[in-house]
Amino acid sequence: MTEEPAYALFPDTEAQRAPSSAPEVPREPILRLTDVGKTYRSGSLTVEALRGVTLTVDEGDFVAIMGPSGSGKSTLMHILGCLDVPTTGAYRLAGEDVSAMRESQLADVRNRRIGFVFQQFNLLATMSAWRNVELPLVYAGLSRPERKARALASLARVGLADRVDHRPGELSGGQQQRVSVARALVTDPQLLLADEPTGNLDSASTEDVLALFDELNDQGRTIVIITHEQDVADRAHRSVQIRDGRFIDAAAVHTRVGSGR
Amino acid sequence: MSWLETLRTAYDAIRTRRMRSALTMLGILIGIAAVMLTVGLGQGAQQQVASQIDKLGSNLLIVSPGSTTSLTGVRGGRGSATTLTTADAVMLADPSVAPDVKAVAPTSTTQASLTADGTNWTTSVVGTTPSWPEVRARTLSSGRFFTAEELADAQTEAVLGQTTAQELFGARDPVGQQVSIGSQPFTVIGVLATVGSTVGGDQDDQAVVPATTYADVVSPGAGTSVSSIYLEAAGQDVLSAAYQEADNALLTSHGVSATDADFTLSSQQSIVQTATSTSRTLTVLLGGIAAISLLVGGIGVMNIMLVSVTERIREIGLRKALGATPRVIRRQFLTEASLLGLAGGVLGLLLGVLGAAFLPSLIGQPVTVSTVAAVAAIAISVVIGVVAGVYPASRAARLSPIDALRSE
Ligand SMILES: Nc1ncnc2c1ncn2[C@@H]1O[C@H](COP(=O)(O)OP(=O)(O)OP(=O)(O)O)[C@@H](O)[C@H]1O
Ligand SMILES: [Mg+2]
After folding, report:
1. Residues B59-84: b if buried by 16+ CB within 10 A, e if exposed
2. Integer Cα distance of B7 and B308 in angstroms
3. Number of structural domains, chain A?
4. Contacts of residue B9 in chain A, CB cutoff 8 Å?
5. Cβ(A97)–Cβ(A244) below 8 Å
6. Which among A128, A179, B26, B159 would be 20 to 30 A from B81, CA to CA?
7. CA distance A99 to A86
């Protein structure tokens, strides 16, 4: 099962996607951020986490976001993942104006289109690995046997086939990270957003996860990844640098050299 | 998300926090059991009183001398006056006067000492007419009741209650034996079947004699006055007609208006009402206290749900991040609260039923658990669960996913 390409496991979601992958001219980028700002206010204190960020990501792209701690990477990622709304600017996801959506529609978008790998894993401590992984499918309305099959397949893809019944507390940091990757993949999302997915992994596990991302990207999934590590960023098609809530060189697109894949 | 899935998630959440869920349920459980038992006790007491009054006789009207309706209270109280006579009984027995009255039994009662073979027993001696067994719905376990001829001849014959016969004759058959009432010897001709106690006292401890004999030898000073007249209406449907007829006939023959009536006419229902109103007040009071404990249980559920929302704020954030809509989150917490309420209610019901089974043997009072009460108990606990869950549930549903995820 692990050898099969991911989309073969998810025939119906593949069918759902069919219209959007039909040739369109001009093709709408999957992500389009226009002059997005985010200001946090807590009492008299305001923090401008993002100051006018513009970014377009085409379908099938693989983008790495780099920047020092506190530069606004996670904030940006949360906006991209529809977990938070920008204070200013516009955000369109797959052609739809996200800022105009109601909370229930946003929940639906998060569920159907986006797989999110959190910086702090965010696994439920009381549930086993596979129960954690099946959660997005619960909200997608799949039947229990189907959910379990997909969750197990997804865990197998990240190399945790033998840990499916373990709770997060019984797993190492790297294993927990992989469970959260498996959960992001389980819905076979169009868009994979990962906030430092390899931050807690050793070089071997990092390589496994990155190979998985490469594979998913080859299958046409769009990936945006936050990382501190240059060699992780090098795997992406391009990388952008963020500092103090701004891209330092919006034009700086480092196209990946070589195509070993 | 399907209802089944919501239920499953709620069940998992409850099971994961076993101890806390159990304590929450305990609050509801105790409340429901307390309400059921107090209400059951009250209903049991009321039914007991009602069945005792049923034993007085069916479709019964009772005329007592004196008035209790007097505002001044100058006239003698009910039962103490001597305004009722055997003539009143004869008049009421006339079908042309009171067509809906089927049978009339005037009674006079006094305490007297009975002696049989050197055994003494003090009890109430009742002087009445042969219609008494019918009117009072009594049967005989052995022997017979006296006849109209024997009444006319003022025979010295007595019918004994079960207890009286037991006390005087022990295991021997009393029928045909001699018993002295005061100094006058009587022949025992029958023994009444047992009915137990009623509001009027122990109905198994009495001696019944012909009214004429009673006036001659048992209580010669009483003359023709009687202590009460029992009337049996021809049926349940003509009870109020019989009441009106008797009332009018007595007012006319006594020559008084309704406002200064020298008698009191009461129906079986009015006696039931008087007798049960006290126990009802007690039931309401106790039930109220029990209801407060149920309310406290409900607040307990609410408290737990609020703590649960606060404690699981990251979980809620995560679930929302993964695609749970506010409606789904709200439904999940509501379901959780209702399940807690339902479980507490079912357990409380079980405890209440168990209590109703064992309590009577401890306190000697019947406890009634009706299906209505059981269904109500379950319904109330679910409602408590839902009400207690609404606020925490909507709080959880309103949280923004990222704020919830970030909170510690
Ligand atoms: N909820 C919040 N309220 C106030 N300020 C916030 C909030 N979240 C983030 N910030 C601030 O916004 C800035 C950007 O935070 P963010 O989490 O996006 O940084 P980051 O680039 O992801 O850092 P790291 O690499 O350490 O994860 C920081 O200065 C942070 O203090
Ligand atoms: Mg971050």
Report:
1. bbbbbbbbbeebeeeebbebeebebb
2. 17
3. 1
4. 138
5. no
6. B159
7. 8
CA A49 to centroid of ligand 1, rounded, Å: 6
Q: How far is the CA of A118 from the centre of ligand 2 (A)?
A: 9
The answer, yes or no, to whether ipTM is higher than 0.90 is no
Mutate to test the pocket of ligand 1, among A66, A73, A76 (most ligand atoms within 8 A of CB): A73
Q: Which of A78, A108, A136 sits opposite B402 (nearest CB)?
A: A78
Q: Structural domain of residue A66, as residue ranges? A: 30-253
Q: What's the pTM value of the predicted model, to 2 decimals?
A: 0.67
Question: Percent of chain A at pLDDT above 90?
Answer: 57
Tell which residue, B282, B366, B352, has the closest CA to residue B47: B366
Q: What is the mean pLDDT of chain B?
A: 83
Identify whether A109 is part of a domain: yes
Q: Assign A251 a pLDDT band (cuts: 50, 70, 90).
A: very low
pLDDT of B306 over the 90 cut? no
Least distant ligand from the CA of A118: 2
pLDDT at A16: 46
Query: Higher confidence at residue B373 or residue A242?
Result: A242
Q: How many CA atoms lie within 13 A of B162 on its CB side?
A: 13
Q: Quick one: closest CA in B to A144, which residue?
A: B5
Beta carbon of A42 within 6 Å of any ligand 1 atom: yes
CATH number (domain holding residue A134): 3.40.50.300
When scoring B12, B318, B322 by the number of chain A Cβ atoms within 10 A, the one with the most, hence best to mutate, is B322
d(Cα A210, Cα A159) in Å, to the nearest integer?
A: 13
Does residue A23 belong to any structural domain of this protein? no
At B383, list the tokens. 């409602």
Position A17 in a domain = no
